[in-house]
Amino acid sequence: MKLERRDSKKLIFFGGAYSNLEATIELKNILDSKRISPKDIFCTGDILAYCADPNETIEVFKEWGINSIYGNVEEQLVGDQENCGCNFKEGTECDILSRNWYEYIRSNVTEESMNYLRTLPASFSIKFGDHSLRIIHGGVNDISKFFFKETSIEIFEKEVAPLADEQIVIAGHSGIPFLKELKNHYWINAGVIGMPANDGTTRAWYLELTLEDGLWASLHSFSYNSKSTSEKMNKKNLPSEYASTLKSGIWPNQDIIPIAQRDNQGIALKEEKRKIK
Ligand SMILES: [Fe+2]
Fold first, then answer.
1. Which domain holds residue 40?
2. How far apart are CA 191 and CA 201, in angstroms?
3. Which of 1, 77, 91, 262 is most buried (CB neighbours < 10 A)?
4. How far is CA 142 from CA 37, 38, 86, 123, in A?
5. What is the Å distance from ligand 1's center to 74 Cα?
6. What is the tens place of the pLDDT at every residue in 207-254?
7. CA 75–ligand 1 middle distance (angstroms)
8. pLDDT in tens, 253-264
9. Total structural domains in the chain?
10. Helical ranges in 169-268 per DSSP H
11. pLDDT of amino acid 86
């Protein structure tokens, strides 16, 4: 774990670039126009997954100079494993589709890209003002654990129990952004940019944390040329189900989502700004 301090007033977090070059470039343009320094930008992992441009996406990360931890996809690639490490139940749609896109990455990722992935840490601990942030991919101890807004409070509390009080967790992996207040902690999912949030829109999401008379968290969305990303996937014979998701905003299935949250599919998420400390 890397422990660092940031003295700026604003930090940016996003996850799941998922080899989506168009979304990555669009986010870079947005943050460049807001004059956000790359050292204040953090990716929560899964730089690579479903889409067609793994090496090109890594190139943008490298040139941009932002921080990233590794996600389960990078962990599996670096460990020369044969699956994406999401622990999808065998035979489910996610499991079958992941064999296709994961194998595409393994066959196409260059040694130069792999060398970059090998430099990524598992997590960051950041001091931001008086606040302590812990940046992780999935769960605190299990990189592939899925957490959603509707995950039970008991499961969240058990997960944060080993952490210092008041620590703010910023996670990725599960693909839908949210802000969740716990007893002594906050759990934030920064959202992903490489696939829609299953809300019927094609938007990508990121998180801004701002020090301004307290600590403010804002979930922001943006649009990009997702049609082009989708077409490239089709040309490379990547799963058409995910290529369609880029255009419909609806996931191929809801296997990983808690039952209580499944009714939210197709309901457009709202941007949100909240004082959290
Ligand atoms: Fe992941």
1. 2-275
2. 14
3. 77
4. 30, 28, 11, 12
5. 9
6. 999 999 999 999 999 999 999 999 999 999 999 999 999 999 999 988
7. 10
8. 888 888 878 989
9. 1
10. 226-235, 240-248, 259-262
11. 85
